[in-house]
């Protein structure tokens, strides 16, 4: 039995008369301490998949199980890191993390609490910004606070919902390394959603593509067998990386093409008719001898 | 680069200006600190100098138009008259304070003050005498000038009047003659009618001519003679000061607390000695009865305070107090109810009809309802436990809380409750879904969710609502005070309107400015509070 699994999960939105199926028959099983990347186009239902895993939404059909028991409601065991940070703007960095830690570890003494929070803030290298409010931080820093908050809850499963999509390329690379470092230090199960093939290939043990919605489902997975630690600088020279990246990209692009071809063409070809022109022809050039 | 101490001060001031919404003065501060003088001067001209001249232009238009509009209460007062009335109100307040001091002075100090005031009174009396003469001469001058101007016209008027009187008599005789002829059958009836009609037309024309001359005379009489005006003005001023000195003398002498006490005490002592040597039982009883009465009056005097006349400052203080009582009542109800509305859709649906129907109701109607409903709790205001308790409290005892104040405060609360309630409900119900998700993941309990997520997130909107509430409350209060005769700015204008002194109109306009400026300051205060609780650092509208 897998550690975290989705069993024939389907979900849709809207009233019965105007229903949109978002996910249909999704099956996914994640082993303990595995790093799985789900990759898909925007609008394909990635965030919905993450909400299901976190228990924020219940599936219409099928089950999501952790340790074999059905996930009924969200909780700190399933540490989700939201796409748009979700920091509480009226609390400082410390306050945001403290709120989570206090809730998850109610028995901590004040000094233990402080030490715990500071440890995780240091882990994402934000100690100088400890007392800052979220609106005083850059996007990357906010994302790191969000990561620290999620990690500080010591979740069994770490669910990362496009954690780096809102960041610029440089900050993104820094945070990717950071997430990998933290994961390697403190092994646990990770499901990450992304739309970046490079990122998925660099970070994950396994890449699972999500087909194009509506009624999206998970397609054939790509195992990443590259040795860790993976060296970012030499990745582009690594034949295995290039091969995997190309095949994933080809699959994704092909899926896109396929879906375009599948779409029923409703346009009607009209005959090319021009009205008869009664105007005398205008002179276009004068030949001078 | 390290920031210098000077820069730190500068940014602190700029931040304070930003928070309090006085960003227009930003370039002045920057200029003082020597930052890009050219740019700052431009900004100052654009955003301070031009608006300043605009306000000046408005004042000029007011000054120009005011005297040209005649009303039942006289001319519309110009800005300088309004300012004068403000100064007069200030003087009245100062004098009340001095009189109170005089009332309480005792011993040597009292005697010293009494001597000084007597001296001043004498000086002022001399001055008054002198000025009175000046006024009299100016009046005589004016009368002379008038006589010169009016004389010929008056003569013409009188001559015409005599002439017309004769002409009328002649016409009457003519008509009498015609009517006799008609009676005798010699003349046509139509000629009689025509003669009477002609007589009417002629009389009207004569009357019109006479009244034109008369109004010419009146016009000359009503013209202001400048030396006389000035003499009168200076006379009034000194006479006013003299009168004040006279009252001071009274308060230092006959009406002084210690003097009155001494008098009563000596009376009591006299009775006591009389009582000791009383000859008969009947006398003893009579004297003892008087002694008891004298004792009572001593007791009464000991607790006596100076009965100050109501000053504009007292009225303003009371108005501000009342608006805050109403405002806090409103906030006390609106915030919890608003939170419940925001949290629970059913609760919101229940309250929606009530909010929709009662929100547009006029404060006047509320005041009447409160006078009846809340008035029932104060059948005997003099001996009401709550009112007595409030009036014993140290800071607010001077405000003399009475049922009228409570009605006004209730009216303010009733009208101020809606914006705060609606905004709180909106703030709570429009909480970010992400924040709710955080609460769900953390499995926060109801109270934690309420105090850690819901309320902080709704706070900026709550304060925006409270700001509107305070503004509405202040506007409503003035009307409520006028109607309920609760001492305050509203009652002040209403009394002015009813009394009709020469300063009435100016006082009303002065109150208009006082109310406006206080309202503005209250609003600014709420903006600052709102800025402190809003976490995004965003600005608020002015």
From TrEMBL, chain A:
Keyword Repeat: no
Gene3D superfamilies in the record: P-loop containing nucleotide triphosphate hydrolases
CDD domains: ABC_NrtD_SsuB_transporters
UniProt GO molecular function: ATP binding; ATP hydrolysis activity
SUPFAM superfamilies named among the record's database cross-references: P-loop containing nucleoside triphosphate hydrolases
One Pfam family matching this protein: ABC_tran
Keywords for this protein: ATP-binding, Nucleotide-binding, Transport
Entries under PROSITE patterns matching the protein: ABC_TRANSPORTER_1, ABC_TRANSPORTER_2
Domain ABC transporter residue range list: 4-237
Annotated PANTHER family: ALIPHATIC SULFONATES IMPORT ATP-BINDING PROTEIN SSUB, TAURINE IMPORT ATP-BINDING PROTEIN-RELATED
Protein name: ABC transporter ATP-binding protein
UniProt source species: Pelagicoccus mobilis
From TrEMBL, chain B:
Source organism (scientific name): Pelagicoccus mobilis
Predominant location: membrane
Protein name (record): ABC transporter permease subunit
Transmembrane segments: 47-65, 320-343, 355-378, 404-429, 450-480, 500-522
Assigned keywords, A-Z: Cell membrane, Coiled coil, Membrane, Transmembrane, Transmembrane helix, Transport
Its membrane topology: Multi-pass membrane protein
Family matches, as PANTHER family: ALKANE SULFONATE ABC TRANSPORTER-RELATED, MEMBRANE SUBUNIT (PTHR30151), NITRATE IMPORT PERMEASE PROTEIN NRTB (PTHR30151:SF7)
PROSITE patterns, alphabetized: ABC_TM1
Domain ABC transmembrane type-1: 316-526
């Amino acid at each position: 039995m897998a550690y975290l699994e989705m069993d024939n999960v389907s979900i849709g939105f809207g009233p019965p008369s105007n229903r949109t199926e978002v996910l249909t028959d999704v099956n996914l099983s994640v082993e303990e301490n595995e790093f799985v990347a789900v990759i898909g186009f925007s609008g394909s239902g990635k965030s919905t998949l993450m909400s299901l895993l976190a228990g924020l939404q219940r599936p219409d059909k099928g089950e999501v199980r952790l340790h074999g028991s059905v996930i009924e409601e969200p909780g700190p065991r399933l540490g989700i890191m939201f796409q748009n940070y979700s920091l509480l703007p009226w609390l400082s960095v410390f306050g945001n993390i403290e709120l989570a830690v206090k809730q998850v570890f109610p028995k901590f003494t004040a000094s233990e609490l402080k030490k715990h929070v500071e440890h995780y803030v240091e882990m994402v290298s934000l100690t100088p910004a400890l007392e800052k409010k979220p609106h005083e931080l850059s996007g990357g820093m906010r994302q790191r606070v969000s990561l620290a908050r999620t990690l500080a809850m010591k979740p069994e499963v770490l669910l990362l919902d496009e954690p780096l999509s809102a960041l610029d390329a440089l900050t993104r690379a820094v945070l990717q390394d950071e997430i990998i470092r933290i994961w390697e230090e403190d092994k646990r199960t990770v499901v990450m959603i992304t739309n970046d093939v490079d990122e998925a290939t660099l970070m994950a043990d396994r890449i699972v593509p999500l087909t194009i919605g509506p009624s999206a489902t998970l397609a054939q997975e790509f195992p990443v067998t590259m040795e860790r630690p993976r060296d970012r600088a030499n990745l582009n020279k690594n034949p295995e990386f290039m091969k995997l990246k190309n095949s994933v990209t080809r699959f994704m692009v092909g899926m896109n093409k396929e879906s375009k071809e599948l779409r029923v063409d409703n346009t009607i070809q009209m005959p090319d008719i021009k009205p008869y022109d009664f105007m005398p022809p205008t002179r276009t050039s004068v030949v001078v001898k | 680069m390290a920031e210098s101490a000077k820069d730190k001060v500068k940014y602190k001031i700029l931040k304070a200006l930003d928070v309090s919404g006085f960003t227009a003065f930003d370039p002045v501060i920057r200029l003082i600190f020597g930052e890009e003088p050219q740019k700052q001067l431009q900004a100052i001209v654009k955003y301070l100098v031009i608006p300043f001249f605009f306000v000046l232009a408005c004042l000029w238009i007011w000054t120009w138009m005011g005297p040209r509009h005649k009303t039942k209460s006289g001319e519309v007062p110009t800005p300088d008259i309004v300012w004068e009335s403000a100064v007069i109100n200030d003087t009245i307040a100062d004098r009340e304070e001095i009189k109170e001091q005089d009332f309480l002075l005792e011993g040597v100090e009292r005697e010293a003050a009494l001597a000084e005031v007597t001296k001043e009174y004498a000086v002022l009396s001399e001055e008054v005498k002198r000025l009175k003469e000046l006024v009299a001469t100016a009046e005589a001058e004016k009368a002379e000038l008038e006589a010169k101007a009016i004389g010929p016209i008056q003569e013409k008027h009188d001559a015409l009047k005599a002439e017309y009187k004769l002409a009328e008599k002649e016409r009457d005789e003519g008509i009498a003659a015609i009517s006799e002829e008609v009676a005798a059958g010699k003349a046509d009836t139509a000629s009689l009618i025509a003669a009477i009609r002609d007589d009417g037309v002629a009389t009207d024309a004569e009357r019109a001519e006479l009244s034109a001359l008369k109004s010419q005379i009146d016009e000359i009489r009503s013209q202001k003679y400048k030396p006389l005006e000035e003499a009168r003005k200076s006379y009034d001023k000194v006479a006013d000061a003299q009168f004040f000195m006279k009252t001071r003398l009274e308060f230092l002498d006959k009406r002084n607390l210690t003097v009155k006490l001494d008098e009563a005490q000596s009376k009591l002592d006299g009775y006591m000695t009389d009582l000791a040597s009383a000859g008969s039982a009947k006398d003893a009883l009579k004297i003892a009865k008087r002694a008891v009465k004298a004792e009572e009056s001593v007791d009464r005097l000991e607790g006596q305070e100076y009965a100050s006349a109501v000053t504009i400052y007292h009225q303003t203080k009371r108005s501000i107090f009342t608006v805050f009582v109403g405002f806090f009542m409103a906030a006390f109800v609106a915030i919890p109810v608003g939170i419940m509305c925001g949290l629970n859709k059913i609760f919101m649906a229940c309250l929606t009809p009530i909010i929709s129907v009662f929100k547009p109701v006029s404060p006047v109607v509320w005041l009447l309802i409160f006078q009846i409903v809340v008035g029932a709790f104060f059948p005997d205001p003099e001996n009401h436990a709550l009112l007595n308790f409030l009036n014993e409290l140290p800071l607010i005892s001077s405000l003399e809380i009475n049922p009228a104040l409570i009605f006004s405060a209730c009216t303010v609360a009733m009208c101020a409750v809606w914006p705060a309630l609606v905004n709180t409900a909106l703030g709570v119900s429009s909480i970010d879904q992400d924040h709710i998700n955080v609460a769900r993941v953390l499995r926060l309990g109801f109270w934690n969710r309420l105090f850690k997520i819901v309320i902080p997130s709704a706070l900026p909107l709550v304060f925006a609502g409270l700001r509107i509430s305070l503004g509405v409350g202040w506007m409503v209060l003035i009307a409520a005070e006028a109607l309920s005769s609760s001492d305050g700015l509203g009652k002040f204008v209403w009394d002015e309107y009813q009394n009709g002194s020469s300063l009435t109109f100016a006082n009303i306009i002065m109150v208009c400015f006082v109310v406006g400026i206080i309202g503005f300051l209250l609003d600014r205060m709420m903006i600052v509070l709102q800025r402190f609780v809003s976490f995004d650092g965003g600005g608020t509208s002015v």
